[in-house]
Write a structure and sequence with these properties.
This protein is mainly beta. Helices cover 2% and strands 49% of the residues. The strands form 8 sheets. Strands 1, 26, 27, 28 and 29 form a 5-stranded antiparallel β-sheet that branches. Strands 2-3-4-5 form a 4-stranded antiparallel β-sheet, with no helix packed on it. It has a 4-stranded antiparallel β-sheet with strand order 6-7-8-9, with no helix packed on it. Strand 17 (244-249) and strand 18 (254-259) form a beta hairpin. The relative contact order is 0.12.
């Protein structure tokens, strides 16, 4: 049976050992965190930006429940021998996990993964389900799945991955699921490559967008439809009514809006010199995206046009006035920001900036190099 138990979103007993063995060094803190009592809705660290989780395995792909009462996200539990990436539910302010689902879509004998969870207003849950042999480098099973409630073990697989689109192209992966009204999903069709930079290095997973696609929820096994003009898409969002798609493209500073009924495409915002925009989300007249930072777009021998992304600066835009505010953070970069249903808060993956100092053996000069952590925790930011 799938595991379901409330636990605190804090570090695990093996945190220090695993961090040193598998991740880049993290930034230090002058004072230790004080953990709130179990069962409370207090965040792990209330200082701005509010740190919601502390997990050596990484917490990713967060989304809000439609009524704003909780945050869904994927969490890798490194203390488990099967290294599952589980689905978790946090209170909207952080604190103790309300729910934790593991061993989906398989069992304890496999590494099971739930990614990109997103709930519909009627309570249904869509997510990417995958599994592999424990220690395997490629999924042996992957699908876009929908459950009738927040219980992922009751899900039906809508579309196995990889798949062929209506244009005859192949999408080897998928991510960033969005509900497009009650009957369709919009998401990013993606390409993925797994590489080891050196013999003792951790594996790099390189994922890049191929196009925005839509899928009929009522027809399991239906063919995904590619949205025209979205080649190399790097982000996708939808309006509450499901009549508009917002998207970003690899290497581009603009955010586009497509009216699905007419096919009309307009630019809703251009971040210009701030840099490449991606990971767009929209609620009402408010838009959020990750912009600039550590990102590059260019050719890859295996994947073709590829966007490599280690995080950027969260920008908030008022679509009525066009005014944009950058939420600069000197300690970390962010990916996949998600606006709360009220549009006043943002949950995002935060990646710590790591400063490595070294001495040139020839000149004996001191140099510093800034890298980005491979693992992320969730942070809560106010949306001005």
């Amino acid at each position: 049976m799938p595991l379901r138990q409330p636990v605190r979103a804090v570090s695990w007993p093996a945190f220090a050992a695993v961090l040193g063995a598998t991740l880049l060094p993290g930034c230090g803190h002058t004072e230790p965190f004080s953990s709130p009592p179990p069962g409370t809705d207090l965040p792990f660290d209330p200082a701005e930006p509010v740190r919601l989780t502390l997990n050596a395995g990484g917490d990713r792909t967060a989304s809000w429940l439609p009524d704003g009462s909780g945050i869904l996200y994927s969490t890798q539990l490194i203390f488990r021998d099967d290294r599952d990436v589980c689905l978790a539910l946090l209170p909207p302010t952080g604190g103790a996990q309300r729910e934790l689902w593991c061993d989906v879509p398989g069992d304890r004998a496999l590494t099971n993964v739930i990614q990109s969870p997103v709930a519909a207003p009627d309570g249904r849950l869509a997510f990417i389900a995958a599994n592999s042999t424990v220690g395997g480098t490629n999924p042996s099973f992957e699908a876009i799945a929908v459950a009738p409630s927040l219980l992922p073990e009751s899900a039906v697989n809508l579309r196995r991955i990889p798949y062929s689109t209506d244009q005859g192209s192949t999408h080897p992966a998928a991510g960033r699921l969005r509900w497009l009204g009650a009957d369709r999903l919009a998401y990013l069709g993606q390409a993925v490559a797994y590489r080891f930079p050196c013999e003792i290095c951790a594996r790099d997973t390189i994922t890049t967008g191929l196009a925005v696609a839509t899928l009929d929820v009522g027809q399991p096994g239906s063919t995904p439809i590619v949205v025209p003009g979205t080649e190399s898409a790097s982000g996708v969002a939808s309006s509450a009514e499901g009549d508009l798609l917002f998207y970003t493209l690899g290497g581009d500073s603009r955010v586009f809006r497509r009216a699905l009924a007419s096919g009309e495409v307009t630019v809703v915002h251009d971040f210009g010199s701030a840099g490449i925009a991606r990971d767009v989300d929209v609620v009402g007249n408010r838009l959020v995206a990750s912009v600039g930072g550590r990102v590059a777009f260019g050719p890859d021998a295996d994947l073709g046009p590829t966007q490599r992304d280690s995080g950027g600066v969260v920008h908030v835009v008022d679509l009525d006035s066009g005014a944009a505010v950058a939420l600069d953070d000197p300690l970390r970069l962010y990916r996949r920001p998600a606006l709360s249903p009220a549009g006043d808060r943002i949950v995002a993956e935060g990646y710590e900036l790591v400063i490595v100092r070294f001495v040139d053996p020839v000149t004996e000069q001191m140099f510093a190099d800034t890298t980005v952590s491979r693992s992320s925790d969730l942070y809560l930011l106010g949306a001005p």
